[in-house]
TrEMBL record:
Native species: Banduia mediterranea
InterPro entries hit by this protein: AAA+_ATPase, ABC_transporter-like_ATP-bd, ABC_transporter-like_CS, ABC_transpr_LolD-like, MacB-like_ATP-bd, P-loop_NTPase
Protein name: ABC transporter ATP-binding protein
Highest rank taxon of the organism: Bacteria
Keyword Nucleotide-binding: yes
Lineage of the organism: Bacteria, Pseudomonadati, Pseudomonadota, Gammaproteobacteria, Nevskiales
Gene3D superfamilies: P-loop containing nucleotide triphosphate hydrolases
Keywords carried by this UniProt record: ATP-binding, Nucleotide-binding, Transport
Tagged with keyword Amino-acid biosynthesis: no
One MF term in the entry's GO annotations: ATP binding
Pfam families with a match to the protein in the record: ABC_tran (PF00005)
Coiled coil: none
Length: 228
């Protein structure tokens, strides 16, 4: 099995604002190993979230190639990319993005609606994912009945429910107090070590980065240093 899960070659991303072209990432080369837990750091505007979105298939590069598990995702049509994301990537965001009208179990089931699983199988998979994050007893609670840490655990369960190859986390502890943040980071670390999940996490928090296997720094769209 190839030890490289994510491979970027010459990846450039630019946006046009009126007559101006803004370069966010410039000729970036990067390899991420299978089973890694990578913290992605850098100042605001350095391209961290853009890079995360490219790897997660939420955006496409202006130039260069991106391969995940041997699949060139930069060459996929938008419909094929959506199908690829549904099976291979779990997303965790800063503000949870849970639907307030649905209970925890139904929120976790959402990504499975894009699959061919039966309703009973979706329910079973959601229960397993909630159990992994320690919230099986909160399955019937709606988001407003959960603490911030519990809501983020539900979001992580939702990211896990389709058993993705890759977890991408954008400031997953940015809205949490230190104690709760440490609990979420410990959970991510456990998912990496015990369940073998490859995790890429954007964070501004050096303490959060300490939970990762290693840290990668971006500045003005370029890779500047890599610390073990």
């Amino acid at each position: 099995m190839n030890s490289t899960l994510v491979s970027l070659s010459g990846v450039t991303k630019s946006y046009t604002r009126g007559k101006e072209t803004v370069q966010v990432l410039e000729a970036l080369d990067l390899e991420i190993a299978r089973g890694d837990f990578l913290a992605l750091m850098g100042p605001s505007g350095s391209g961290k979230t853009t890079l995360l979105n490219l790897i997660g298939g939420l955006d496409q590069p202006s130039a260069g190639s991106i391969a995940v598990d041997g699949q060139r995702i930069d060459q996929l049509s938008s419909s094929k990319l959506a199908a690829w994301r549904a099976h291979h990537v779990g997303f965790v965001f800063q503000f949870y993005n849970l639907l307030p009208v649905l209970n925890a179990q139904r929120n976790v089931e959402l990504p499975l609606l894009l699959t061919k699983l039966s309703a009973s199988q979706r329910k079973k998979n959601a229960e397993v994912a909630l159990d992994i994050v320690g919230l099986k007893d909160r399955a019937k609670h709606k988001p407003n009945e959960l603490s911030g840490g519990q809501a983020q655990r539900v979001a992580i369960a939702r990211a896990l429910v389709a058993d993705p190859t890759l977890l991408v986390c954008d400031e997953p502890t940015g809205d949490l107090d230190r104690k709760t943040a440490d609990e979420i980071l410990t959970l991510l670390q456990e998912l990496n070590r015990t369940h073998g999940k490859t995790i890429i996490m954007v964070t501004h928090d050096p303490k959060a980065a300490e939970y990762a296997t290693h840290t990668l720094h971006l500045d003005k769209g370029r890779l500047v240093t890599e610390a073990a």
